[in-house]
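Exercise 7b. Backbone tokens:
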């Protein structure tokens, strides 16, 4: 009698389960864990893509933490996070909360809000870049000129450039967040609202005491997902500042763009790997912190 024939039915089910899980598990390890471990190893080495790797110890990290450009970029990355996440969640919730009460052309309006999320990020970035151009090309500056306001150098100002790039990044993600919020709102049993109305509870009290607490799992999901998105922002910055990526004076450069330039412009793969490890660590800490703070008590 062979080994398989000696197994019980439950043991055979376990064998078949692991057999079917083996391929995706191996594939996941190869495309996730191996590149991560390889990047961590590379961060302690020097490599220009052509020569051999040489060990440098913590030199890449020492150079990184002593680089003023890195700290400027690090600050920019957290500005994208700290401004983009709450603004996008607040706007998307307000829209979803009110759209959920609309019955006329509800599907059409919802599709229109979702459309920017489906649009190519590159095409959207170039469109917004055109909006920001000086008179007579730019849409926004033309509108300002018609009411007598001097034109603004949206993408060439160290003050205005980052908010100008953040605006289309927030706008692009609203559609997805609105759909998720609406799904969360629809999942709340209507009996809670009916009982509250019978007791004469006001709309604001219902919002703060019923809707928001029951939306907590949805909010946690969107906060973490949105935070990861803003910490990894790249496409909007790269395409809207293509003549001076991350400019002016690195005022819009995020960490992902710095990694890209270090790796594929300077060909300093070890230094780029050190930056990647820092970004990975930041993403992990931010995500775990948010999950801890917003956990169910």
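Sequence design result:
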């Amino acid at each position: 009698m062979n080994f398989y024939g000696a197994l019980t039915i439950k043991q055979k089910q376990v064998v078949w389960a692991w057999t079917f899980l083996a391929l995706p598990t191996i594939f996941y390890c190869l495309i996730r864990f191996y590149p991560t471990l390889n990047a961590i190893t590379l961060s302690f080495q020097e490599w220009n893509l052509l020569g051999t790797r040489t060990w440098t110890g913590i030199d890449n990290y020492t150079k990184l933490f002593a680089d003023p450009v890195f700290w400027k970029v690090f600050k920019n990355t957290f500005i994208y996070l700290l401004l983009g996440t709450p603004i996008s969640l607040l706007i998307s919730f307000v829209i979803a909360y009110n759209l959920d009460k609309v019955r006329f052309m509800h599907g059409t309006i919802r599709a229109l809000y979702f459309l920017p999320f489906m649009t190519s990020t590159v095409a959207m970035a170039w469109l917004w870049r055109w909006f920001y151009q000086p008179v007579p090309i730019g849409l926004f500056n033309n509108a300002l000129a018609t009411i007598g306001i001097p034109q603004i150098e949206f993408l060439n100002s160290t003050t205005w450039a980052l908010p100008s790039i953040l605006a289309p990044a927030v706008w692009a993600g609203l559609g997805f967040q609105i759909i998720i919020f609406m799904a969360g709102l629809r999942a709340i049993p209507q009996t809670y609202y009916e009982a509250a109305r019978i007791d004469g509870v006001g709309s604001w009290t219902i919002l703060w005491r019923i809707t928001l607490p029951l939306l907590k799992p949805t909010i946690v999901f969107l906060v973490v997902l949105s935070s990861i998105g803003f910490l990894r922002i790249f496409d909007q910055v790269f395409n809207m500042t293509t003549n001076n990526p991350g400019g002016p004076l690195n005022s819009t450069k995020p960490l992902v763009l710095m990694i890209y330039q270090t790796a594929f412009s300077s060909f300093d793969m070890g230094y780029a790997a050190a930056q990647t490890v820092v970004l990975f660590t930041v993403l992990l800490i931010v995500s775990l912190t948010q999950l801890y703070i917003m956990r169910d008590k």
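Instructor comment: The mean pLDDT is 88. Residues 4 and 12 are 7 Å apart (CA to CA).
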